[in-house]
Amino acid sequence: MTRLFSSFFIISLAGQTALHAGEPATMSCSLLENNVLRLRVPHLTGNFAEQDFLAEQAITKTTGKLAGIILDLRSADGDEAGLVSATNHFANQKRPLVILVNGRTRGAAAALAVDLRAAGDGLLVGSTNFSGAVKPDIAVAVAAEDELKFLADPFYVPIAAKPDSPADTNSIAEFVDHTSEADLVRQRVKDGEQADAATPRAKPSQPVIRDPALARALDFFKGLAALHQTRG
Predict the structure, then answer these.
(1) Using CB atoms within 10 A of its CB, is residue 61 exposed (0-12), middle (13-18) or buried (19+)?
(2) What is the pTM for the complete model shown?
(3) 213 has a pLDDT exceeding 90
């Protein structure tokens, strides 16, 4: 297992590569915070269940019990064999499941999302697909260009659009303190607080997942964890 960030892991086994020689890569697997497994599936194939099983085994040996699964079917398609394999696989799962969908979720991937939701096996998060058949429980609007970058990097920070007119600058930005940490340190030194300025800095916080759909899915699992703790 290769560590990417302290709360985000890429699984080398069954992730990014095909399960058998000569087959295209059909799944990538990553471990998110709170032991949530994300399965990114661009193309659903008949060996889905085998791939998922190997990924889960690799993770549980290292981290213990999984809290849930995020099945990322955004911009995904698939084969009929993949639909049958995945449907049967998740029908036997008892872990919480969130399914990410968007306007380009199609074919067997779209059918899987609809079937799992109808069976009560998963919660849909994202946007309605082009046919209108996949309707999310939690709608998330994301620009198509940004969504492509989020799929490649959940920590991607979109570049803010430049205002077209002076009126567009009337936002909360003017109320935000833009003083940098370096400026604050210099001011403290100037005010005679050199000793405090030499205090070791706290470690930076964990990277924040900027992908809106993925972040909403993680919020769902955090809510489940909090509910479980409350009930004991």
Answers:
(1) exposed
(2) 0.73
(3) yes
78: three-class secondary structure by DSSP:
strand
Dist. CA 17–CA 39, nearest whole Å: 13
What's the pLDDT at 227? 84
| Measured distance CA(59)–CA(212) in Å, rounded | 25
- pLDDT over 60 at 6, yes or no: no
Helix (H, G, I), strand (E, B) or coil at 123: strand
Distance CA 141, CA 6 (A): 28
Residues 23 and 119 in one domain: yes
Same domain as 73, residue 96: yes
CA separation for the pair 67, 171 (Å, rounded): 39
Pairing of strands 2-5, 28-32: unpaired
- Residue 202 belongs to some domain of the structure: no
- Which pLDDT band holds residue 72 (cuts at 50, 70, 90)? very high
Strand partners, 39: 29, 71
CA distances 146 to 30, 128, 149, 216, Å, are 20, 17, 5, 16
- 143 and 173 co-located in one domain: no
**Beta pairing class for 2-5 and 77-78:** unpaired
From residue 103, alpha-carbon distances to 108, 133, 142 in Å are 14, 10, 10
Question: For residue 185, is it within any domain?
Answer: yes
Clarify whether residues 221 and 179 are in a common domain.
no
Q: Which residues pair with 9 in a beta bridge?
A: 3, 31
More confident residue, 212 or 178: 212
| Domain coverage including residue 67 | 2-161+209-231
